[in-house]
Amino acid sequence: MEFKYIGKDILRPDATAKITGKAKFLADLKLPGMLHCAILRPTVAHAKIVSIDTSEAEKCPGVVKVVTAQGQNYRYGDNIRDFTPMAGDRVRHIGEAVAAVIADSAHHAREAVKKIKPVYEPLPVYVDARDALKPDAVLIHPDSGDFWHLPGLGPKAGTNIANYYKLVKGDVKKGFADAEVTVEGEFNYPFGSCSAIEPHGAIAWFHEDGLIEIWSSSICPFVIRDEVARVYDRPISDVRVHIPEVGGCFGYKSDITVEQTIAFIASFVPGRPVKWVATRKEDLVSTLMGHGIRTKMKLGAKKDGTLTAIQATLYHSTGAYADTGIHVCIGATHNCTGPYEFPNCFMESYLTYTNTPPIGAFRGYGHQEGQFGVERLMDMLARKLKMSPFALREKNYLGEGKTTSLGEKLWKTNGDVRACVANVKKAVFDSPKPKEDEQFYYGRGFVAVMKSPKGAPFSSKGCYLKMNSDGSVCINMGGAEVGQGLRNVVRLVAAEALKIPPERIRVYTEIDTQFSPWEWQTIGSMFTTQGGRAIVRAAEKAIAILKRTAGQVLKCDEDMLDYDGEFVFLKSDPGVRVEVPRLIHGYITGDGITIGEVVQTTSDCRLPRYSGLDPETGQGSAGVEYTFGAQACDIRIEKATGKVLIDHFASSFDVGRVIQPKQIRGQIVGGVMIAIGSTLHEELKFDKDGKCLNPFFGRYRFPTIKDRPAKQTVVCVETPAVVGPFGARGIGEHPLVGVAPCILNAIQDAIGVEFTELPVTPDKVKKALEGR
Amino acid sequence: MAEKINLTVNGVPRTVEIEGWERLIDVLRDKLDLTGAKRGCDDATCGACTVVLNGEAVQSCITGLAKYKDGNVVTIEGLSGGVGKLHPIQQALVDAGAVQCGYCTPGIVLRLYALFGKKPDATDDEIVDALEIHLCRCTGYEAIFEGAKLARGYLKKAAKA
Ligand code: FES
Ligand code: FES
After folding, report:
1. Are A60 and A112 in contact (CB under 8 A)?
2. Does the CB atom of residue B59 touch ligand 1 within 6 A?
């Protein structure tokens, strides 16, 4: 297929505003009469709140109100309603909101907050799911059995289990009985932070006329809107949420995180907007963290390498609230097979309340944690079978006609993992590996990966398209631009579908639930797929209107007409035509009467036949649009320091169709870097009392320009998908999925040490080298 | 205690009333409405707030009164010259695809502005050293590094013209 616009690099619509410093982020917003707030965080991670003395704080300069939640106990959440906006009778993690000061400036609010005096009665602290699951553990939510939750999910009353998920496919006992070789291991993906450089923040404003207005650095305005409306008992139409530019997301600005807290605080000063921007420390431990998943996994195979069974148990230390972690955990569980067909599966996960900040989405949404284990074990299995890691995997790939753990049969249009593998093999393995020298050991590793959308059956994206009288077009959508470049995708897909140059299309900047079409949330790397399809549908509707009016003008049936972006014309005689601009607001006929419909359309897109999961087997069609890929790397390990240096990292994904080559590369290279951080450097550490030991960039080891791989290779495979526009798939989260096992497989290759816990820091490598 | 101070910002002399605790970032963002200086950490560990003070790139979140009083500040708002006229460094970063979320971007532009202002021939290693303080979560740094090298070339071309 020949494309006129997609596949070409054009200037991002947001680049100029960002590079000139004019783009407005949450912290840059000022509203009339705006107040500021600061929030008190506890000094203990689990305690009953005995009392909170606010009298000193109230006397401080500039203070308008001091807020506590004592005596209040409302809950929110859209999976399990277990979140509280502010601690009421007890605190459950170190980043929680205990009280807040509203003042005329952020400085005054912060000064006054120091004067609040809470008294706590400490309770036992659980940082690790395995401790919280012990039979004698104190309950973090004694009332968890009363929480509202979606059907089929939810806490087990009387325990710290927030959800138990089980997936059964085939007969795992038989699968292991049939196996001639087994491998097993335990793998840990510790706590981390998405750490966008823009900290999270929100503004809330309870207007006198009943409107509640919220601004947030979020990617889910409509979820915020609906939940705030529910809590404050307003019609949904009375809550209006705005999303300005978002300075990076990577997962943790999804769901509702800080907005309910700021709305709760602002509800004490009706008529005044109240603003809060997280400090870096708050961004790390008072929003949502990532990962916290420990996996025990076992694989069985025949001697020829054919896989017979997988068994996995995941322990998710999901933090004090589980609403935002539950689907990460479920996704990690059913996607932990990686891109392989296992005829027999038994996977289970314990989503567990702990006294740590809640876990939420982290770019990859459970896939990197789940597939960390399987990709390490596949290499171990290959060694045991004396097969090459390529040959072993080759025998077992998912693809057309194969079934996933969920029981979904895959289509050809789900993509081609083998083509991706061939690309990274060529990039890395086809040249000779350097030999060990004075300074370094050298190794190389390889993985194959699979990514599902992990969405919801009702997840949809909408598009409002408006043609203007000169033929230019305005498009509004509900997809949040967080840097991934989705507005450029919108522009290019619309240009292609409408056959007009991208420069004639202006896309939205801020999202405003009053004016933007409904979208569930911008998550799951699904905007290009679903949003793109919605654009194509809106464009088709617009073209149909043009043809309808043109049919009246040219006095023929619509299906006799064609459209080329400039004219609607008779197929059989293109000279018989009418210019598009003359049709857009209706056509003015010779006698001065206007006929025809105004060209403005709406559309949406859901994934076809996406379903919920069966409560007994944990299966269902909860993927639909899968993406496959492969990654490989060349590393060196510095003997003196144990430092792992990445010489070359290669990624290949079946993206269906390349819309923007430069942006795809940017997404993949950037995504790989985040996961290199998780693999080699980053961990949010908590002591046994639940205190975070490194909630600052100075001690949370964030990758810098010096940590980047010397070279990255990116190769795209294009097997067109069914839903996405022109066959395109999303690529946002995929680059992270295989990075950790890929590097760890390479470390094994270099020094023969099997690491199973992240991050693999230089001291751990050095220790391992000494211990060999 | 509030006090009145003078400083020059993007070539314009300004007088502002400030509190002694206020850092340069507060003056720029809150008093002068120059919100291009971004706050990412507030403790000199991310680089997002970088501006140029008396020819040096500084992290405005830790730049106190004694340093910025009577100073000459260049912010991101002072670099471009109107529609279609980006500064060569800005143009280079845009051309390299180095702008994703854009939150780290102004600081990086100004770091390079100070670097190339002093060393038009800065080597690749010097560029990397200068940018090490700047955290970027989006790009993986590849496009930033490419953009910086491109900027070095654009500036030289502009100097010759
Ligand atoms: S805000 Fe100044 S260095 Fe991060
Ligand atoms: S572009 Fe987003 S932090 Fe650098």
Report:
1. yes
2. yes
A1 touching B (Cβ < 8 Å) = no
Q: What is the mean pLDDT of each run of 10 residues along chain A (772 residues)?
A: 90 94 97 98 98 98 96 88 95 98 98 98 98 97 96 95 98 98 98 98 97 97 97 97 97 93 98 98 98 98 98 98 97 97 98 98 96 98 98 98 96 96 98 96 98 87 97 97 94 98 95 96 90 97 98 97 98 97 97 96 93 91 92 98 98 97 96 98 98 96 97 98 95 96 98 98 97 84
- Contact by Cβ (8 Å): B17, B3: yes
| CA A328/CA A684 separation, integer angstroms | 18
Cα atoms found within 13 Å of the Cα of residue A625, Cβ hemisphere only: 30
Distance from CA of B161 to the nearest CA of A (A): 24
What is the pLDDT, as a whole number, of residue A144? 96
**ipTM of predicted complex:** 0.98
* Alpha-carbon gap, residue A341 to A399, rounded angstroms: 9
Q: How far apart are CA B115 and CA B51, in angstroms?
A: 12
Would you place residue B155 in the very low, low, confident or very high pLDDT band (cuts 50, 70, 90)?
A: very high
How confident is the model at residue B84, as a pLDDT? 79
- Residue B29 is classified by DSSP as I
Q: Domains along chain A?
A: 31-123+198-247+253-285 (3.90.1170.50), 293-455+611-771 (3.30.365.10), 458-606 (3.30.365.10)
Work out the burial of residue A431: count CB atoms within 10 Å of its CB; fewer than 13 is exposed, 13-18 middle, 19 or more buried: exposed
Is B35 in contact with A671 (Cβ distance < 8 A)?
no
Closest CA in chain B for residue A199: B40
A673 touches B at CB < 8 Å: yes
Which residue, A15, A20, A12, is CA-closest to B80?
A20
Do residues A599 and A500 lie in contact, with contact meaning Cβ atoms separated by under 8 Å? no
A186 contact B CB<8A: no
Domains in chain B (CATH in brackets) are: 2-78 (3.10.20.30), 88-160 (1.10.150.120)
Nearest to A190 by CA among A368, A350, A327, A378: A368
Provide the percentage of residues in chain A whose pLDDT is more than 70: 100
A283 alpha carbon, closest ligand: 1
Q: Which of A17, A28, A198 sits opposite B35 (nearest CB)?
A: A28
